[in-house]
Amino acid sequence: MANIKDNIRLILNEIKDVHKKSNFSKLSIPKLVAVSKNQDDNKIIEALGMGHKFFGENRVQEAEKRWKKKLEIFKNLELRLIGPLQTNKVKQALRLFDVIETIDREKLAKEIASNFNGDIKTKAFYIQVNTGNETTKSGLDPEKVDGFIKYCIKDLRLPIKGLMCIPPIDEEPSMHFALLQKIAVRNNLNELSMGMSNDFKEAIKFGATSVRIGSSIFGERNIKL
Q1: What is the value of pTM for the model shown?
Q2: Beta bridge partners of 34
Q3: How far is CA 23 from the centre of its chain?
């Protein structure tokens, strides 16, 4: 079984080392978001036991089942939705997640705005950008992002704090990280969720404020059909 504690310590040290040598070294060290989707619960408990605070889930219902009781026991956790969000799961998601990283269309943004009030848990949202214009992947086309950000902030009054992307697996990720960083700068957004197990070091060089890592922490996940 994967040594969760050692893996987390190793990756945190790598994050600090790359960040220290980057052009963004004066900013805060990027957060390590442990991607817990489809992982055995004992692995998650081990990570919690060593004090890890940041976790990412892909599905609302799976996340609620896993985290509802744990959130009562382990305080100060930050739970992020990093997978697609259906409009019929918005109310549920707003009660569970601190950050929702995957706003990618007007219908979803409107549904979130109509349910955004003082009773929800979510305090920050990211826009997901499809930097590679992949037809099989969620996210806004880069050329449409600027207008959508303004719409979400000014018209819907949502607290849009950052951007998120998943580069194409067959392309150099740095060009996609650079594009996301450029979009963020011109829209005055400070948070960038980018970089996974295979490319998080490169993402940090381009200003990632959080990296999403699963297999390098927990090992291979269980496949759920």
Answers
A1: 0.94
A2: 55, 213
A3: 22
